[in-house]
Amino acid sequence: MNHPLKRSHPRLLPLLYVLLGTGGVSPGTGFSQTDVLVPNHGALYGGNLVFADLKSDVPPPEAKVSAQFGSDSPVAGVWDDKSHCWAFPAPAHAKLETVPVALTVNGERSERSLTYTYTTYGKQDVPLLTINQSVLQKNAAAVRQMVPPGVQLGVVLKNGDPAGYLGKILEEAVAADYFCVPKLQDGVDLREAGVRAPIVILYLESPENIPVMLHYDLEPAALSVNWVERANNVLERCQGVLNVHLWVDTGMGREGVIPSQALELGRAIAKSPRLKLKGIATHFSCIDSKDLAELNKNNAKNETVRQKARLDGVLKQLRAENIGLDAVVHAGTSDVLRYKLQPLYYNMLRVGSLFFENPTGRESNYAWTTRLQQVKTLPKGWSVDYGAEKRVKKETLVGLIGHIPDRNGKRVFYVRDKAVKPLLDDAEDGMIVLDLSGFKDVKEGELVRIEFDPSSDSPLDSSLPVPVTFSQK
């Protein structure tokens, strides 16, 4: 691989050390005691430079240096005049995982335990999110046991990054009857990761993308009679049959037809020789733990009761004309299962957030950590943030971390396992100033654990510009 970095410099370097390392030289091996590469993680597609500072008795112009990432073929080191380090372009990799890295200098191979982590996202400054695969699968199996016999399980991955990897892990843990994703690309990712279960695209998708849906065996939402007409035009050219789900807007105000238009849409689907009605669905907008009592009383003043009645009315109309008799009816989501609202189970439950929660007292299915980048003491009355409107009331020890993606404030920060509050949470810049009052000896470089408020979603079922990887422990 040609690279603009130069392979020449007269400087003689110590035998081997890696940037940010603190260890000394290991006698007899020619390698240092550090276990860190810089950067130590990067995206699966590779190409980013990994730096190390090393030397043999032969100066850089003649030295032969290489790095082997896992079982991939070794890549040659390129000398960088600016950093006085060797640079290795990280090779592309097939899995989200941490791999050993073996450095070789003029035929001498390091015996140190160096590692590099492959992630979904290439940015180096954003804290790494590690998903504990075994814990996630254990939690998923527990959720599967909550679904009663005779009710199918639809696994929901809402914009999940990485949808494909999460899907494959969950498919191995539970016998999912369906996967439910909001976007076409999520479905493609699931198929390319090896997921075999049926996949429904929950939200808006253009009929022009039907060739992609046919190729990957994806089932979109049929949203209107016009959508069906456009789909028929595409399918006449493709000569395929597309499975679709008739989506009813029972009160969410988003995708789907209002109930009075559902029968017309069902007739259009049934009339088409190129469409098969595979499912009928809605999304209830305000599920609450108190809804079961209201459903049992059929209280028409309750919004969930009203929305259920609208869906049931559509089902009665369709079945009266023998439309969708074998279609899977799905409306209930995680909260329906959580609160055991059995009248809303229908044929299938779409479960997402329950898979990814971390109940109190259980092992976490993810770890999102960073380190204190600066620690200082603000004098009494010192201002915080633009405008100088907020001031500390007393001398205050603070710690700074940065590049933390915004979650609308629904995050909890821990230092030494103690929750600390942010004095400043700059969503735009990702800068956080933590109040370290109560600590006396906190130092820069100490670990900060980031958790999510129990009232918010887990990071594993929402898009975040966070580098994600997997571990088995």
Shape call: globular
Helix content percent band: 10-25%
Tell me the strand order in the biggest sheet.
17-16-15-14-22-21-20-19-18
CATH homologous superfamily designation of the largest domain = Alanine racemase
The overall strand count is 33
Strand fraction band?
A: 25-35%
Low-confidence stretches: 1-35
Distance between the termini: 36 Å
User: Any idea how many domains?
Assistant: 3
Helix count equals 10
Kindly report the CATH topology of the largest domain. Answer: TIM Barrel
CATH class of the largest domain: Alpha Beta
Radius of gyration: 28 Å
Annotated CATH architecture of the largest domain: Alpha-Beta Barrel
Mean pLDDT: 86
SS-based class? alpha/beta
Query: How would you characterize the largest beta sheet?
Result: 9 strands, parallel
Structure description:
Helix content is 22%, strand content 29%. It is an alpha/beta fold and 473 residues long. The protein has three domains: 16-119, Immunoglobulin-like, CATH 2.60.40; 132-356, Alpha-Beta Barrel (TIM Barrel), CATH 3.20.20; 366-457, Beta Barrel (Lyase, Ornithine Decarboxylase, Chain A, domain 1), CATH 2.40.37.10. The strands form seven sheets. The chain has a nine-stranded parallel beta sheet. Strands 4, 6, 7, 10, 11 and 12 form a six-stranded mixed beta sheet that branches. It has a six-stranded mixed beta sheet with strand order 29-28-32-23-13-33. Strand 2 and strand 3 (31-32) form a beta hairpin. Helix 1 packs across helix 2 (163-173) and helix 6 packs parallel to helix 8 (303-320). The longest helix has 18 residues, at 303-320. Mean pLDDT is 86; it is low at 1-35.
